[in-house]
Every structure is written in structure tokens, then in C-alpha cells.
Design goal:
This protein is mainly alpha-helical and about 300 residues long. The protein has 2 domains: about 210 residues, Alpha-lytic protease prodomain-like, CATH 1.20.1510; about 70 residues, 2-Layer Sandwich (Alpha-Beta Plaits), CATH 3.30.70.1350. The chain has 9 helices and 3 strands. The chain has a 3-stranded mixed beta sheet. The protein starts with 6 loop residues before the first helix and ends with a helix. About 5% of the residues have low confidence.
């Protein structure tokens, strides 16, 4: 219940990207240590966080599908993806801190870097990132249907993370190229710091976005105002309370409380809202009779 469009397609693409990147992640981190490249190591660690985040995303898709009809989840299982996104973002923040500490240590005590070997590996890593982005972009566009209300935060977070990973690979290539061609040794650990900043920025945005969904924050203030105006006009009653929140990708819940003279038809109002706003998947309309209102 309340799963996003093309849920199985997104799940399958995410699993494929996990397999692709996990295979290269192990190789990149290992060679980062062997060749002494902090930029390569940071890129590998970033790819590791990417694998972790995508694994959580894939697991969330599976759990959401498995519990779609579980009555214990009053408003469906659509938020598994947001829970996975929040968890992976916390882990990303901690890993970014570790990368910064190691980069600063290498700025103070430089180590020898095998630039040519590390550069070749970073280039392959960029190719893997581009391939992963292409896979998720295709699924993301199919899933999004170019409408904001149908956006899957879980899939979108994975896609943006892959783009950030690709950007870090580009920075690593630039740093290693500078060291190889011009002997700029400090560029490698500096890029480690920049890569950590990219990870931190992505983690902060994801924490904020997913936390708002998990805390049932108002999903769309403009839409809530439009609904309030429409209901008061059509029902001839005053809206005393209105709650609009996200249930899952493409699904919103709505509770509207009306105070009027007893003429408002809650079933008619509910049908009107569902027809007018297709993204409203769970609608509750409460009508309270106000004796004084009937005489006005």
C-alpha cells in the first residue's frame, strides 16, 4: 500500500548498481592504500558509502513491498525508503569526518603517492560512477513521471549520491593529474577534504529531507492552502483543522476537520478532493455541527 510507481523497476535497477559499484569499491580502497593516494582512498570510501546507501535503498524497497498489505502499518509501508535514507545519511556524516581527519594528517605528514597507477584506477572509478548514474537516471525518470508529487525520495537520494560520487572521482583525477604532471603533492589530501565536504553536504540535505517525512511534517504548504480554500468554498463550512503529510512516493494523507451548520456532506467532499488531487491516497473528512453557525 502506498508504494511508488514502477516500484519493482526501481528496486531491480538499485540492486544492479549495488553489485556494480561494490565490486569496484573493494578494489579502489585497496589500491588507495597500496599506492598511498588519499584522493583515491577518499573516492573509494565515498563509493563505499554509496554502496551502503544503495544497499539500504534496495532493502527498503524490498521491505516496503513485503509489508505493503501488513495491517500493522496504519498508513502503509511507503516510508521505509525515507527511513533508509535517514540512516545512510547519518553514517555518511561520520565517514566524512574520518576522511577529513586522515586528509589533514597527510597534509601535515605527506606520504609517497604512485600517481600514474592511482590515476588509472580513478579513471575507471569515474566510468563505474557514470554507468551507475545512467542506470538510476533511466529508472528515476520513469518513476518520477516528471511530477514532483510522485518523486521517490529513496531513488532520488541514490541518484544524487551517484552524481556526488562522480564529482568526487573527477576531483581525484584532477588532484592525481596535478601530482603526476606538476609535482603538486598537497593537491591529493586537499581533494580528500573537498570530497568529505561533498559527502557532508549530501548527508545534511538527505537528513533534513527524510526527517521531515518521518516526522509527518506538512508536505506541501501551498497545496494545503489550496485545499483549505476549496473545501471552505464548496462545503460552505469553516476548516478548523487540516493535516497534509507524505505517506510514500506519490501518496499523501489528508485529514480535514470542518465546522458548519450541518449541511456539509463529508463523503461528497472526500470524492471531490480525491478527484481534484490524485496524489491524495488517504483522505479523512470530519464535520462538526455548530448550532450557532446554522443561524448565520
Amino acid at each position: 500500500m502506498f508504494l511508488g510507481q514502477a516500484h519493482e523497476r526501481a528496486e531491480a535497477r538499485t540492486r544492479l548498481v549495488v553489485i556494480l559499484t561494490a565490486s569496484f569499491m573493494v578494489f579502489e580502497i585497496t589500491t588507495g592504500f597500496v599506492f598511498g593516494s588519499m584522493a583515491l582512498l577518499a573516492d573509494g570510501v565515498h563509493m563505499a558509502t554509496h554502496v551502503g546507501a544503495l544497499s539500504l535503498a534496495a532493502g527498503a524497497y524490498w521491505l516496503a513491498r513485503r509489508h505493503a498489505t501488513d495491517t500493522r502499518f496504519s498508513f502503509g509501508s511507503g516510508k521505509f525508503g525515507d527511513l533508509a535514507a535517514f540512516t545512510s545519511a547519518i553514517v555518511l556524516g561520520l565517514i566524512a569526518l574520518g576522511v577529513v581527519i586522515e586528509s589533514v594528517r597527510r597534509l601535515m605528514a605527506p606520504v609517497h603517492v604512485h600517481y600514474a597507477e592511482a590515476l588509472a584506477i580513478a579513471a575507471v572509478g569515474l566510468a563505474v560512477n557514470v554507468a551507475s548514474a545512467a542506470l538510476l537516471h533511466d529508472s528515476h525518470e520513469h518513476h518520477d513521471d516528471r511530477r514532483l508529487e510522485h518523486r521517490d525520495h529513496n531513488l532520488r537520494a541514490a541518484y544524487v549520491h551517484v552524481l556526488a560520487d562522480a564529482a568526487t572521482s573527477v576531483l581525484a583525477i584532477a588532484a592525481l593529474g596535478s601530482g603526476l604532471l606538476f609535482g603538486i603533492a598537497w593537491a591529493d589530501p586537499v581533494v580528500g577534504v573537498v570530497g568529505a565536504a561533498v559527502i557532508s553536504s549530501w548527508a545534511y540535505g538527505l537528513v533534513r529531507q527524510s526527517a521531515l517525512v518521518l516526522l509527518d511534517a506538512e508536505d506541501d504548504p501551498d497545496l494545503a492552502r489550496d485545499i483549505k480554500v476549496l473545501v471552505e468554498r464548496e462545503a460552505g463550512s469553516q476548516v478548523s483543522d487540516l493535516h497534509l503529510w507524505r505517506l510514500g512516493p506519490g501518496h499523501r494523507g489528508l485529514i480535514v476537520s470542518l465546522v458548519g451548520g450541518g449541511e456539509a456532506d463529508n463523503e461528497r467532499i472526500k470524492r471531490m478532493l480525491v478527484e481534484r488531487y490524485p496524489g491524495l491516497s488517504h483522505v479523512t473528512v470530519e464535520v462538526s455541527v455548530c448550532a450557532e453557525c446554522a443561524d448565520r
